[in-house]
């Protein structure tokens, strides 16, 4: 595998990118960020990705991976929960290749985070079932069994008590509804105990910016499954996208 690759992570508030050292999972450039355009149409976001690559001066030999906040099934996004609905049905591989003028590998953002946590972080060498959830505008999920990812699991959209789970229990909703840690933890308890009942995981890894403040909510949860913060906090999307692109380029 190549020694470096570039990862881009498309989020609800910002699009972030960096070049990654694939040996260590650390950045070899600074991490740069451009606000997510409003409306976040596919073309507007792809243009931001182009600008990020230009700013990072990513050469043509470096593989590029793009993490998208939606399932990506053989390059196609079937629905988009938190960006412009125009993404639905779009082939994002083709969209990105057109705008970036080079081959691009796309994948779900939580799957990217899961891949990164397996390669460099909290899920490294963990046997059994690991569920990585990313807490942001939505809730992303990656299920990894003995190091192998089951892609596009979308556990943020489990329907619990009549609600789309991420509309109750995401970190984005905590901010939006100005919930205290205690109130949010109640919602997390309902969410993670349901996921636990369905999948009997061996480990939960919680990522996203809020995982930096894990001591505020993790001690409030009562689960049978151990839960740890992501090692890569909110950089896992970039790192996983880069890793995945390099692995694909290798064939
Ligand atoms: C999307 C997922 C994504 C998650 C985190 C959800 O709304 O459906 O695909 O992984 O948000 O961005």
Automatic annotation (TrEMBL):
Signal peptide: none annotated. It comes from the Bacteria. SUPFAM superfamilies: Actin-like ATPase domain. InterPro entries: ATPase_NBD, ROK. It holds the Pfam family ROK. CDD domains: ASKHA_NBD_ROK_PPGK (cd24058). NCBIfam families: PolPhglucPhase. Belongs to the ROK (NagC/XylR) family. This is ROK family protein. It comes from Schaalia canis.
């Amino acid at each position: 595998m190549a020694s470096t690759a570039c990862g881009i992570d498309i989020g609800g508030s910002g699009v972030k990118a960096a070049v990654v050292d694939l040996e260590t999972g650390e950045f070899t450039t600074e991490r740069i960020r451009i606000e997510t355009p409003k409306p976040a149409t596919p073309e507007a976001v792809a243009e931001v990705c182009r600008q990020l690559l230009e700013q990072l001066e990513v050469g043509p030999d470096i593989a590029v991976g793009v993490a998208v906040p939606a399932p990506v099934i053989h390059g196609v996004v079937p629905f988009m929960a938190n960006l412009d609905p125009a993404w639905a049905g779009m082939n994002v591989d083709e969209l990105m290749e057109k705008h970036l003028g080079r081959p691009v590998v796309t994948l779900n953002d939580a799957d990217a985070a899961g891949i990164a946590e397996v390669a460099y972080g909290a899920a490294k060498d963990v046997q059994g079932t690991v569920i990585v959830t990313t807490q942001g505008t939505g809730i992303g999920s990656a299920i990894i069994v003995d190091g192998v990812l089951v892609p596009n699991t979308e556990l943020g959209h489990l329907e619990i008590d009549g609600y789309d789970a991420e509309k109750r229990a995401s970190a984005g909703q905590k901010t939006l509804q100005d919930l205290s840690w205690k109130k949010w933890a109640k919602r997390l308890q309902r969410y993670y105990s349901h996921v636990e009942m369905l999948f009997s995981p061996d480990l939960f890894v919680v990522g996203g910016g809020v995982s930096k403040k894990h001591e505020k909510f993790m001690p409030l949860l009562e689960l049978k499954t151990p839960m740890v913060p992501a090692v890569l906090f909110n950089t896992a999307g970039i790192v996983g996208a880069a890793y995945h692109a390099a692995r694909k380029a290798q064939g």
